[in-house]
Design goal:
- It catalyses: [E2 ubiquitin-conjugating enzyme]-S-ubiquitinyl-L-cysteine + [acceptor protein]-L-lysine = [E2 ubiquitin-conjugating enzyme]-L-cysteine + [acceptor protein]-N(6)-ubiquitinyl-L-lysine.
- The chain has 16 helices and 9 strands.
- With 489 residues, it is mostly helical.
- Strands 1-3-2 form a 3-stranded antiparallel beta sheet. It has a two-stranded antiparallel sheet with strand order 4-5.
- Helix 9 crosses helix 12, helix 12 runs antiparallel to helix 13 and helix 13 runs parallel beside helix 16.
Length: 489
Amino acid sequence: MADDEQCYNSDDDDYMDDCDYYNDEDTYMNEIPDEDKWDPEAEEAKAECLDHFQVECLLNENLASVVGGYVTPSLAKILLHAHNWDVTKVRQLLATDMEGTLVSCGVKPATSHREEKGQLCLVCYNTDDDLRSLCCRHGFCSHCWGTYFETRLLEGNATRILCMSTKCAVVAPPEFVLKLLDKASLRAKYERFLYRDYVIAHPELRFCVGKDCSAIIRSKETQPKRVTCGKCEVSFCVLCGIDYHAPTSCDVIKKWMLKCADDSETANYISAHTKDCPQCHACIEKNGGCNHMQCVKCKHHFCWMCFGDWKSHGTEYYVCSRYKENPSVAAEANHVKARRALEKYLHYFERYENHNKSLKMEEELRQKIKRKIDTKVNEHEGTWIDWQHLHTAASLLTRCRYTLQYTYPFAYYLEKSARKDLFEFQQGVLEREVEDLAWAVERADTADRGALEASMHRAENKRVALLRDFFFSPMTDGAAPGPSRHTSF
């Protein structure tokens, strides 16, 4: 698709930096009946923000649980990384089949691949009194090892650097690699890559996605909830690192973003709006109303509708208008199918993108309201408490529209069913309430406070109902969820 149709990413704009619209709920939530109250923390992941030292302490604690006997700290890192730092699993594997576990993880060589170290480097064949080898005994000179490690680092590899010998699966431990890297810059790079790989593999750790932020988020959440970095205040999904995307799942939002950024829709457009010449198969786009087509390439005359030869077509219109099973009609069916697929995608994308643009404009409105409140307070026209409801309304509007934006990728990939019918109904109701609230917020200075707060209540109620039914209580059998006491229309 064109550049202006790319999916929104938090790095593209700073309107997500100030996320108090997702946390500014106390005033509003106090006015909702207890039976309908939504826990403000339901969408927030339980997490803590760690620095480099704290992460190292956590990893060392995991290592201490595995080290013992043949398993040194260096080898324990290889074992744990191979099993995503699952201490319990590694200990069970070592207890049941230590030899097989060490071999499968590259800590020890298979018996059939063990060799005695020779007198020549197996790469350059130069005699070297200081040949180095891993536990597999494949000997190489220091220069060849260093060049090999540097090449692997250029490829971004650090934790799975194998022995240079063909078909040998022994992994080079960190201490071995560091000794043979002769440049301080390379050693530092290797350690950075190791740290990166360990964090990525650890199920409880996530790199903060904030620009130039070095914080690590630790969370045991298994649901795609929102987490906010305590260092840079950037919010994102705790599981996938993308902008928080309820009610859409991580897998679906990745597919959606790839579809939006991919050139596949260009090919889809070609399929939907062009056909191939039946004789030379050149791609032809119709630019007039007449169905009599002439291929520019091979000069073949044919009917745009049935692909029949135009020479005989003049006396056989009835054949063109009649349904029949043949390859020409099948090609037409594919053409129509591609066109409908494109129309479906554009339907959801245009609405997704429209809400994204509205979010940016309403964020400007929210900041404008904050400045206006500050001005009124400074001019002694009431206190912040007297005007806080205006900012709360603008924050709630942004929160509701943000959820509404991500309902469109969800709906795009949702199969036609009774559940989809219910979702689209709730989506439509939420959209109506969001637009009503937007109208009220834009006229907040002159609007009645009671009416504004009633609109706030309705919008948040519909947002909560949709998330309860389709995000925090996902259906596993494809059936529509039963009636919820929280879902009132």
